[in-house]
Amino acid sequence: MQTGDIRLIKDINARLVLNLIREHKVISGADLAKITGMRPSTISNILRELKSKNLIVNLGKGESTDKGGKRPYLWGLNDEASYVLGVDVELGEITAVVLKLNGESVFKHVYKTEQTSDIQVIVDQIVNVVHDSVKKARIDMEHILGLGVAVAGVVNSVRGVVIETDISPKMNIPLKAYLGKHFNFPMVIENNANAAAIGAKWVGSAKDVQNFIIVLVELHCDVGGMGIGLVLDGELYHGANYCSGELNVHLPTLTAILNTLRNRLHEGDILKNYIDRLDELDIYKVIDAAKKGDKVAQMCFSIVGHHIGQNIAPAVGLINPEKLVIAGDISELEELVIEPINKEIEMITLNLVHENLEVTTSIHGRYSVAMGAASLILNEFFKVVLIKKSDIVSL
User: 3-78: which CATH number, 3.20.20.150, 1.10.10.10, 1.25.10.10, 1.20.1290.10?
Assistant: First the structure.
């Protein structure tokens, strides 16, 4: 299999057909011709080309039509033709995933790394994580379609430059160029909330949704904040200077919330055991306690939910989206955070704004950003330039 051929499908018609096969999962050549308006001979040539590149597989024959005739061949995406990688880079931690072409995960892991602001060290960490992920996923590097890298901060995704980030005091970091010295496959560098938004669109909670907001919540002992990603008319919105969604919102830290509830910790079945050792608690332990019914732990996330709702309500009122997706670690708690967020939005916005709004959580929990980073490559690979049906070339 020639990976170079797989990475470059320049023909618009071929991309369109490949996308239709991906969306339908199983489809015949006759149906492809009917949907696209292309001649059957054109479809046959495209199917032959896609099959030669190992991107599609023959799934046998379908049923004849009511008028009889030959049974049509059925086609499906070859999910294992190639793979995409995604990494979420944070201070002291890199989360990695490997996905098939259909978005199914074959590997995911959270790597603990040395806390450093040295960009060269961080680049080496990313390189090591990529190599280890590919090895543990038991795939060959030549079958990697591309790498998506998500970083907190302002990112020029066109140039692959991190303009500003919390993980380093340096400005205008050419991260794509640095990584390009180690890898020859395509790469996309993106803001973490924007990556999570693309993940929600491709492999998450906002498939087929044209207008939605994603809120990426960062909550740890000494960190409390949220990033926002916007998808408008089905496309990620970056803003004039790649600063869309940068509201600079500060949420209370986990430590601050726990200190607020210190006098009630004895009411929690699990957290009461930490009254004199709050420093041993982290976000994962508190989430686990909330899942197990600890009332004080659940109060913690109710407080967080109210703060999120208060801060995101103006954006909801401004954009009037169909869906609001909560991503990050706390998304695993679902209704525990959705309910207080909904209450705040309902109090602050007009009835017409929120009556059709669906508030939901990411289905990928702490892997939301890494899944989104990998989806950046899928988004680029399967992207079809919007054209009029009359512009489709029939050969």
Answer: 1.10.10.10
